[in-house]
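Deviation from plan, reported transparently: zinc ion complex.
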Amino acid sequence: MITSYHTHTTFSDGDNTVSEMVKAAVNARIGEIGISDHYVMPPDGRNVSWSMRLDGLPDYFNAIKEAQDAFTGKINVRYGLEADFFSETADQLRETLSQYAFDYVIGSIHFINGFPIDEHKKNWDNLTQPERNDVIRDYWNRMLQLAKSGLFDIVGHMDLYKKFGAQPTIDVSEDIIAALDAIAEAGIAVELNTSGWYKPIREAYPSAMIVKGCIKRGIPIIITADTHRIADISRDFKRGRALLESMGYTKQIIFKNRKMSMVEHQED
Ligand SMILES: [Zn+2]
Ligand SMILES: [Zn+2]
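Because the crystal trials were delayed, the predicted structure below was used instead.
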């Protein structure tokens, strides 16, 4: 069964409605689709343009429920979310998440101390290399906190900071190892996010080396497209699957009521 769990609709920064996304998934022979719009609660209280409204969750749930009802028997529809992790607002997020029956929550980091890591290349160009190193090291430390927070089921695009080509000139391998160990300890999954192949870095998130580190630790991996339009709903899934299989990984995971189940992947 093909799943597509990282999808954005008009509730956040996607081009299509929930219903259009689910219909496209049926047409693409996807067995299970999850909607995972952005939910961003920054510590400085600023309004993030690409996040859904913070009071938008009731409408969001209704829209997913409607699509679920409309396509019953044709596809499984799951209640997901891509929520940003900030240690400063983690308790507030925990309280919000506890009020809704999500099937899974993707935890992502798009900001480091207010610095938007994936918005524009020029933001990175304006940093000195030591400043870039600081952002990247801080990113991995926050990734460790994300894993320990217990808030999430899946880690989103794990090395997102590389999007425009930024790389550290200091050794952050110990920080990465600590983050991966914490993820393994937390029992949560990591995505192989195919959208990176279409960004300037031209590499899936995370890098092959990190994927190997996940497999070594027994961390479950889920292939996602991070789609913002129906056309990309399963973009490069075969390529992602081939990459994982080349590393000896053949499992597939699905989520319901925030519980992960693992199945052997089968070609359909
Ligand atoms: Zn994201
Ligand atoms: Zn996303």
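The chain has a mean pLDDT of 97. We consider this an acceptable substitute for the interim report.
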